[in-house]
Specification:
The complex is a heterodimer of chains A (about 1150) and B (about 140). Chain A is an alpha+beta fold. In chain A, about 55% of the residues lie in helices and about 10% in strands. Chain A contains 49 helices and 18 strands. In chain A, strands 3, 13, 14, 15, 16, 17 and 18 form a 7-stranded mixed β-sheet that branches. Chain A is globular. Chain B is an alpha+beta fold and about 140 residues long. A 5-stranded antiparallel β-sheet of chain B has the order 2-1-5-4-3, sandwiched between helices. A two-stranded antiparallel sheet of chain B has the order 6-7. The chains are: A alpha+beta (about 1150), B alpha+beta (about 140).
Chain lengths: ~1150, ~140
């Protein structure tokens, strides 16, 4: 049929002329002589945009006159509406017509009414005020006896409807669910779907009716209800598990061809319906073996039935494959799905190839072997003429990158970047390269070169975290001091040689990075005197294209270098030049530098070498100003009130007239000048020093200023998640004309790599070689070879400060290996597992399992023993969710039994040994949950940094074997259990104990909540015996201290909107600050950030990472608590806990 | 989710546009011009799915007319690709041998057909008879 369409459309120019004569056969075509026709014709005839605008403005003017004329017939009005729609489509607003569209819907007769509704749905948006005027019409039409009108009303409701008016039509629409006509029921369900979209709370009570719609005798109504279900299941899969059977049955019927023939599309039964159902099954079966079990059959059948080679069957197959890889895996199905992916990837049709790559990217995280199977195809796709295919391939490679193939993959990405000019692609790809380089860099040289390429290409559009992370990495260094030095030295050398190039253009961000590194680490150069570096920086400073922000950076670098070259002529020149600069910021820096130079000793103390990471002690309470404040107060100045207090007073006073005379205004010039100094970008402000305060004050000031110069820019701020990606609205695109050197830079990089890894000989051989470099480290065999080799390179570029993080990662990879002994799918490569070495020595798998199990427990306990999690790391981890092979692994992880030694006597030793290990970790006592003559279940809470770890000990007290012991936790919406909630031991030997662990996180805050579950077991062939138990978890189990500094606290405090205040009356002995703080620290595990006078600030976070801040003030028998958090309900719950512990104490 | 449904001819003239997320009128024309430029730059051998900004474009060409659908990552590209064809088949059935002219001069009816098929960015109906039923009734009423 498409042939016919195409033929017809090709004959278009001819038709255009003949059209009037040969009007179409079936439906009467609108004559070309109609007004719309003449409008379109005259517009088509125009050549310029300007003429079009003129014509449309004329048209709009005449339309305006027509629609507002009282005598206009509805028929004409309908005509006008279509023309208005046409004008809006061309981009000319015609808001004068909106009200008439509503009128037409109200007054018109069927077709006119329909066009009125159509115009409304096209013109108005969800929150348009005119929409309210439509409600009456809709209500009237819903009650009409004419089905066509009811239909129209339902259609418009399901397209656009004001949220607040839903109650007005809801009962009418609910009635329609029982209508005898299929179309009315179907449209009613669609309308309810709309309500569910815009106001889910309002349709909560009709969930039963949705179920009825799902079981409707008509396919259309059932299909309509699936949209609602897909949405609801996405939000909360556990609530709809019971419907799995129904969905499976429906899909079976559809696949089996039980639907009426008119639902077929190219003889495939209802393909879009099938896709919808497959998606729902995927969501339901995810991480749930039982539900998945139900779906295996129908998935198998879907795969089998979809053998026809029409495009649409491929769409179904693709969905099928995704579902199979989403649900709990079944080896046979996976195998079939993998074969299916092969069909896609190898297809000559480009669209199918794309789908195949997409599917591969999706499944490769679970089964890297598939990449090996299709490696040659992937290599071909890498050089595919279609950039879209290339990009999808790069996405795939990104997922399988490891330490061995990183340089090839990054090189491929850089090649792609060179051809691409689209900002969005650059941003995303540059981010990926930076991430891979940081994770897997093979050596210093490569790392710096790669990052140079990233900065050159990414320029000013890339995410600001990239340069920030890079500098942080350089500054904080790694474990090996020597290695650090080399890396920094290499960076300095490479930047100097880059600056050597004449007329080179570098993005501003890159220049900033360079100037910071040169300022900090030029001292590492032996021969080069700092003077040379300063000269280079000076030249940059004088460059016209350098922005003032960058200039501030360069100036800071020069300032840092000056103590090493105190008599530099260039610095003198620079000071002279900028002391008269029009840029006040630069002028200030120049003055600072000038004054500092006069006292070289002071300057050396002030700007020490390589101390960018040292923390400075700052007198945050500004006690040295006390005298000044006292003086001010003596002279009648008003005492300082904190911002919030002023705000409150302003609010309370705002409504009444102020009859009091205005007080003396306290001159704030001093403090404000200090403020501006602090906010200047490079921040080396000597405001008070210049203004001639006492030497001591000056010293202190400058001390704190040094802190700002470094910290503000490179410290934690870069990791704060509030940093927006400026790239999107940054109009400064990198000038393309100038980037010849930029390209060169990348070229260099690429050439270097090419000479390393590629030789252009025969094409095939090259591909083979590429394949071997790309896919190294993947698959089972190489994974085995990796076992013995501890990869030291891979964590070379990891930050020291993220030790915690790395340890976590180790744990995760240990998990992976854990699974691999159970699950053939997880042959993931992994890194740095010291404790894997000893496990490899032991040949026996069983031994491996348990030794690894205990190793894991030990290592996890050790690594987690730092009870305070660094906020910044935590937050940055949130904002930069790095989709690495391990972190995104959705494979479910369960912990193998702690010990398989079978002796009842061992229970005590086991328990005690467990507890011994636990002693390093904060944990609760072992609590007995339930027991009978055969079995005892006890549990213990371990408060780990990232979750609550529940350890269940199941002891077999009898002398018989217990079979198929199941321990299952009932899922509740308040908790998230990170592992499979159920666990099964095929056998528990007589008198032995097994342990199971679950990591639990909180989903919604609560005070106390029970977690229940049951154990089920069988003795010989007797029926199952079930024991139920429950365990109470409280909010405090999920509260962890949050270690942040006062400065971060201040920033966070301002950024949180939810606050709760409460005054607690206490006896005088209790209402002192130290006591209150101690109570909160001990009982609630809050972190004391700072104590200032009689006020204290504390911070904690609710797992996984909801921060909550507390400000506490003790005053005359009351303690004022003030909470702020990003979560609305958390402060209330926490307040309750605080009250409780304070009263108890 | 489907974000928008466009019919644009080779000259860049929009023949139909339907947005399922609110977009300002002036931004629409800019987007449409850019989208058609992107589609025109691609050859027949190239893939019909384009990664465009943070969403994807699925396009199909019928003579001089492009049908372009913008989707987000939750949608199945091939299913949307075939959906476009299904839409054209419906038009073909209604107009019996549809041409660009039919679409131009029956803007309202094409919209009505599309509204039966896509609601709130979801594909809601693909059965041709059911899609056309409401429109055919209206036509009948108008005749009598």
């Amino acid at each position: 049929m498409s042939d016919i369409v195409e033929k017809t459309l090709t004959a278009l120019p001819g038709l255009f002329l003949q059209h009037q004569a040969a009007s179409g056969s079936g439906v009467p075509r609108v004559s070309v002589s109609s007004r719309l026709g003449s409008l379109i014709r005259s517009i088509t005839a125009l050549t310029s945009k300007h003429e079009e605008e003129k014509l449309i403005q004329q048209e709009l003017a005449s339309l305006k006159a027509t629609v507002s004329a009282p005598g206009t017939t509805l028929r004409l009005m309908k005509e006008c509406m279509v023309r208005l729609i046409y004008c809006e489509m061309l981009g000319y607003e015609s808001s004068f017509g909106y009200i008439h569209a509503i009128k037409l819907a109200q007054q018109g007769n069927l077709l006119e009414k329909r066009v009125g509704y159509l115009a409304v749905s096209l013109f108005l948006h969800e929150n348009h005020e005119l929409l309210l005027l439509l409600v009456n019409t809709v209500v009237k039409d819903l009650q009409s006896t004419n089905l066509v009108e009811v239909c129209m009303a339902l259609t418009i409701v399901s397209q656009i409807f004001p949220r607040e008016m839903i109650p007005a039509v809801l009962p009418l629409i609910e009635d329609k669910l029982q209508h005898s006509k299929e179309i009315i029921r179907r449209k009613a369900v669609q309308a309810l779907y709309k309500f569910h979209l815009i106001a889910p709370n309002q349709v909560q009570h009709i969930h039963v009716k949705f179920r009825k719609a799902l079981c409707d005798r008509d396919v259309g109504v059932m299909a309509a209800s699936l949209h609602i279900y897909l949405r609801m299941i996405k939000e909360n899969p556990s609530a709809y598990k019971d419907l799995t059977g129904s969905f499976v049955t429906i899909l079976k019927q559809v696949v089996g061809g039980k639907l009426p023939v008119d639902f077929n599309y190219h003889s495939v039964p209802a393909p879009w319906l099938q896709i919808q159902l497959l998606r729902i099954l995927g969501l339901l079966g995810k991480d749930d073996p039982r539900t998945s079990e139900l779906t295996y059959d129908v998935l198998d059948e879907s795969l089998r039935r979809a053998e026809l080679s029409h495009n649409i069957t491929y769409a179904i197959l693709f969905e099928c494959v995704q579902t199979i890889y989403t649900i709990y895996p079944k080896p046979e199905l996976l195998e079939k799905a993998a074969r299916c992916i092969g069909k896609f990837v190898l297809s000559p049709k480009i669209n199918l190839k794309y789908l195949g790559l997409k599917a591969l990217t999706y499944v490769i995280q679970q089964d890297p072997n598939l990449a090996l199977q299709h490696q040659m195809t992937i290599i071909e796709c890498l050089d595919h003429p279609d950039p879209i295919i290339k990009r999808e391939t790069l996405e795939l490679l990104y997922r399988i990158t490891n330490a061995q193939n990183v340089s090839v993959i990054v090189q491929k990405m850089l090649e792609y970047l060179q051809q691409s000019k689209e900002e969005y692609i650059i941003i995303s790809l540059v981010g990926k390269i930076a991430e891979l380089a940081e994770k897997y860099a093979p050596d210093n040289e490569w790392f710096i070169q790669t990052m140079n390429a990233v900065f050159s290409v990414g320029g000013d559009v890339m995410h600001p975290d990239i340069p920030n992370n890079f500098l942080r990495l350089l500054a904080e260094g790694f474990d090996d001091e020597n290695e650090d030095k080399q890396l920094r030295l290499y960076a300095v050398q490479s930047y100097l040689s880059l600056l050597e190039i004449e007329h080179a253009f570098y993005p501003q961000r890159f220049l900033q990075v360079m100037s910071w590194v040169l300022g900090e680490y030029s001292y590492l150069l032996d021969k080069g005197t700092p003077d040379i570096v300063i000269t280079k920086l000076y030249r940059l400073l004088m460059n016209k294209s350098t922005t003032s922000e960058t200039k501030a950076w360069i100036m800071a670098a020069v300032t840092k270098l000056t103590p090493q070259a105190p008599s530099s002529k260039t610095v003198e020149k620079l000071i002279q030049e900028f002391s008269v600069s029009l840029d006040t910021c630069m002028r200030q820096h120049a003055f600072e530098l000038k004054h500092l130079r006069e006292n070289v000793e002071l300057m050396k103390n002030l700007l020490p070498i390589d101390k960018s990471c040292e923390d400075l002690v700052v007198d945050a309470s500004l006690s040295f100003l006390d005298g000044f404040v006292a003086e001010g107060l003596d002279q009648g100045a008003a005492p300082y009130k904190p911002h919030h207090q002023r705000q409150e007073e302003k609010l309370s006073q705002g409504k009444v007239l102020n009859f009091e005379p205005y007080g003396l205004s306290f001159s704030s010039t001093m403090s404000s000048s200090g403020c501006t100094g602090r906010q200047s970008p490079a921040g080396i402000s000597l405001g008070s020093d210049v203004s001639g305060n006492s030497a001591e004050t000056g010293q202190k000031e400058t001390n704190s200023l040094k802190l700002e110069g470094v910290k503000k820019l490179w410290g934690k701020e870069g990791y704060l998640p509030k940093k927006e990606n400026k790239a999107g609205n940054n109009p400064e695109l990198q000038p393309i004309a100038q980037d010849s050197t930029l390209v060169e830079n990348v070229d260099q990089m690429i050439k270097k790599d090419q000479s390393q890894s590629l030789h252009h000989s025969e094409e095939e051989a090259e591909k083979q070689r590429l394949a071997s470099t790309l896919f190294v480290g993947l698959g089972s065999e190489s994974a085995v070879s990796l076992l013995g080799k501890t990869d030291t390179v891979s964590h070379k570029f990891r930050r020291k400060s993220k030790v915690n993080d790395i340890k976590n990662r180790e744990v995760t990879s240990a998990h992976n290996i854990n699974c691999s002994s159970f699950n053939p799918l997880s042959n993931a490569p992994y890194e740095d597992n010291d404790h894997l070495n000893n496990f490899q020595d032991k040949g026996d798998t069983r031994l491996k399992k348990c030794s690894l199990g205990s190793e894991f427990l030990e290592s996890s306990l050790k690594s987690e023993s730092l009870t305070e999690l660094h906020l910044v790391d935590n937050l940055s981890a949130c904002s930069l969710s790095s989709p690495s092979l391990f972190e995104d692994n959705s494979m479910e992880i369960f912990h193998p039994p702690h010990s398989t030694v079978s002796s009842f006597a061992n229970e005590i030793t086991l328990t005690s040994s467990l507890l011994e290990e636990l002693n390093e970790q904060v944990h609760s006592d072992l609590v007995e949950l339930c027991n009978n003559e055969m079995l005892k279940v006890s549990s213990c809470k371990i408060w780990k940094d990232d979750c609550l770890l529940l350890v269940w000990l199941v002891a077999n007290k009898s002398s018989l074997e217990l079979k198929s012991m199941n321990l299952e936790i009932t899922p509740t919406e308040n908790f998230k259990i990170l592992e499979q909630p159920g666990f099964c031991f095929p056998v528990i030997e007589a008198e032995s104990t097994k342990s199971i662990q679950h990591r639990v996180q909180m989903e919604k805050p609560f005070t106390e909540e029970g977690l229940s579950g049951y154990v089920k077991y069988q003795v010989e062939e007797d029926p199952y015996i079930q024991l139920e138990f429950s365990l109470t978890l409280s909010l405090l189990d999920f509260i962890r201290p949050m270690k942040i500094c006062t400065e971060d606290f201040g920033k966070l405090w301002l950024s949180f909107a939810n606050d709760v205040k409460q005054n607690l009356k206490m006896s005088d002995s209790q209402a002192n600050l130290p006591f209150a703080l101690k109570t909160l620290q001990q009982k609630l595990r809050l972190h004391i950030v700072d104590i200032i006078g009689n006020e204290g600030i504390l911070a904690c976070h609710l797992l996984p990472s909801v921060p909550c801040l507390l400000h506490l003030r003790a005053h005359e028998g009351t303690v004022a608590l003030w909470f702020r958090s990003s979560c609305s309900s958390l402060p209330d719950y926490l307040l309750y806990q605080c009250q409780k512990v304070m009263e108890e104490s | 989710m489907i974000k928008f449904f466009l019919m644009v001819n080779k000259q860049g003239q929009t023949r139909l546009s339907r947005y399922y997320e609110h977009v300002e009128i002036n931004k629409r024309t800019i987007l449409e011009a850019d989208v058609i430029k992107t589609c025109l730059s691609r050859s027949k051998e190239q893939c019909s799915f384009i990664e465009y900004k943070d969403f994807k474009l699925i396009y199909r060409q019928y003579a001089a007319l492009f049908i372009v659908v913008g989707i987000n990552e939750t949608e199945n590209e091939m299913a949307v690709y075939e959906f476009i064809h299904n839409f054209v088949e419906v038009l073909d059935m209604y107009f019996s041998r549809v041409s660009e002219l039919d679409i131009m001069f029956n803007l309202d009816k094409v919209h009505l057909i599309l509204d039966e098929m896509v609601l709130n960015g979801c594909i809601v109906e693909t059965n041709k008879a059911r899609i056309l039923a409401p429109l055919l009734i209206l036509d009948k009423m108008a005749e009598s």
